[in-house]
Amino acid sequence: SFRLILDGAPLIAIHKARYFKKKDGLALGPGPFVAGLEYATDAKATVVGKPEKTFFLEALRGTGCAPEEAVMIGDDCRDDVGGAQNAGMRGILVRTGKYRPADEDKINPAPYLTCENFPAAVEHILEHLL
């Protein structure tokens, strides 16, 4: 990848997540590798997935749902919740999966809501947002 980029190939990243959750624990995501390639080549990656605004807006296209009517539930404060909120959605952070204590404090604005798990988030939506 390094040599191809130096020779003019574009750097396209599916996303720049720092880490993800595997069965045996956390593992590095593509983000650190993309950042390394950007640094080493002076290239800027085109990110086509989360947390890019266009990713979230594209997910809504054809649904008849405006961003302010949508809610993203995720375990990644920056990429799931922050990305969704940047696109005009509400973001609910769940304390499962790759969630780490104090993740709520890593984005501004903070998540719309933080719940213990996915079912609790859905319950909140059903009770308060519909």
TrEMBL record:
Gene Ontology, cellular component aspect: cytoplasm
GO molecular function, one term: metal ion binding
Keyword Transmembrane helix attributed: no
InterPro entries hit by this protein: HAD-like_sf, HAD_sf, LHPP/HDHD2
Keywords: Magnesium, Metal-binding
Cofactor(s) needed by this chain: Mg(2+)
Keyword Cytoplasm on entry: no
Xref: SUPFAM superfamilies: HAD-like (SSF56784)
PANTHER family recorded: 4-NITROPHENYLPHOSPHATASE-RELATED, HALOACID DEHALOGENASE-LIKE HYDROLASE DOMAIN-CONTAINING PROTEIN 2
This protein's name: HDHD2 protein
Source species: Nycticryphes semicollaris
